[in-house]
Amino acid sequence: MASYRFASRPPKGDAIAFEKGVLSVPNNPVIPYVEGDGTGPDIWRASVRVFDAAVRLAHGTERRVSWMKVFAGEEAHTAHGEWLPDETLEAFKEFRVSIKGPLSTPVGGGIRSLNVTLRQVLDLYACIRPVRYFEGVGNPMKEPEKLNVVIFRENTEDVYAGIEWKAGSTEAEEIAQLIRTKYKKEIREHSAIGIKPMSEFGSKRLVKMAMQFAVENSRRSLTLVHKGNIMKFTEGAFRDWGYEVAASDFAGQCCTEADLGKGGIGARADCLVVKDRIADAMFQQLLLRPDEYDVIATPNLNGDYLSDAAAAQVGGLGLAPGGNVGDGLAVFEATHGTAPKYANLDKINPGSVVLSGVMMFEYMGWKEVGQLITRGLENAIKSKRVTYDLARQMPGATEVSTSAFGDEIIKGMSA
Ligand code: NAP
């Protein structure tokens, strides 16, 4: 059991366990949370009331969450002189399921990005981003309801491996020289060098998690999104490894688009269809034929762009949740930043953290809680009493504060 210098373990509650690949969730789990910087505290205050209300409504006194505040970001740095105290990572490991608000990235500090560090240190290898439309939310599309996808983006390799050297540095010059002399490839003088590693292990475990989700949730298709026409041995290999996982671990549960096209033995209408798309074409596809896509598995950089673009199609980042998930370890988080200009104004939309909570409860197997929160949010939006960002896109809406929007969501759970 870890000891904590800055955080306090709640007097009641138990750690979530993970044995033989299965999460075991007690009735009173301890869940660590980071409020986040900027607007984080405003958002957290509203969100935690929504979470507690939903658990109470679904389970009465039988279940409750013991929230444990842990420190990261500006608050940790100001109070304790550390951006990401080791004990916060320890808490995430000990209690297994956590949630966090946005963290500002320290400029010029020794740490590249707190969020990237968290994902790498804890090996949270999948960044999961469900994107769906909530009726009534302003958006740029004619039929926004046609988009309903869950994006699994690889979280530890590709550009997130963070291996690069500045133009002119000794390392960049040495590597360029090696490539010129030993591998006979041209590299322009004074080039910066970045390395994009993508492994069979990393790619396959990501695709496997996405396939598992697709099968368990009876989703219709899984699309591997890659840029393999140009980067054959990284992005192209991701596609090939993806198909290999589908064939080896999900035989009988899926078929490929190619099988269906040929009308061969795999041509069953009820199977999970595995297909692939080149990344640039996929951006068009999601705009033009969004209802043909369902679960998406993709390397890091493609997923970075695709997740935000998809969120924009249904009304923006204010309602876009995220989860960083490894094996038996998960940190759910807002996908937007700290929006510092709105800090302490009780103004910002808490929807992204609230929906990240939905993902968290689903991950814990508390599906009824997630359903209640989703219903609450749908009804709050229908009532048109919403935060400024939604109000400015919804004719006839009344702008309410962060906390009042939390109240509307709670009210909406019983409507
Ligand atoms: P940002 O904080 O996401 O804010 C940009 C704009 O997005 C806001 O001014 C606001 O637009 C809108 N917005 C963001 N969150 C919203 C919400 N909950 N409700 C309604 N509107 C919302 O991006 P940034 O200004 O580029 O980044 C600020 C800091 O956040 C940086 O330090 C960055 O590194 C960090 N960041 C952290 C994370 C993370 O922790 N996951 C992610 C991204 C950025 P309007 O002004 O138009 O209303």
Sheet-strand content, in percent, reads: 15-25%
Total number of strands? 17
Number of discrete helical segments: 14
Arithmetic mean pLDDT: 93
Span between termini: 43 Å
Secondary structural class: alpha/beta
What level of helicity do the residues show?
Answer: 25-40%
Radius of gyration equals: 22 Å
Give the neighbour order of strands across the main sheet: 4-3-5-15-14-6-7-13-10-12-11
**Low-pLDDT windows of residues:** none
What small molecules does the structure contain?
Answer: NADP nicotinamide-adenine-dinucleotide phosphate
Task: Please outline the major beta sheet.
Answer: 11 strands, mixed
Q: Quick one: overall form? A: globular
Q: What report would you give on this structure?
A:
With 415 residues, this protein is α/β, with parallel strands linked by helices. Helix content is 40%, strand content 18%. It contains 14 helices and 17 strands. The strands form 4 sheets. Strands 4-3-5-15-14-6-7-13-10-12-11 form an 11-stranded mixed beta sheet, sandwiched between helices. Strands 1-2 form a two-stranded antiparallel sheet. Strand 16, helix 13 and strand 17 (398-399) form a beta-alpha-beta unit. Helix 1 crosses helix 12 (367-382), helix 9 packs parallel to helix 10 and helix 11 runs antiparallel to helix 12 (367-382). The longest helix has 20 residues, at 40-59. The radius of gyration is 22 Å and the shape is globular. The mean pLDDT is 93. The protein binds NADP nicotinamide-adenine-dinucleotide phosphate. NADP nicotinamide-adenine-dinucleotide phosphate (NAP) binds at residues 102-105, 115, 317-318, 333, 336-339, 348-349, 352, 389.
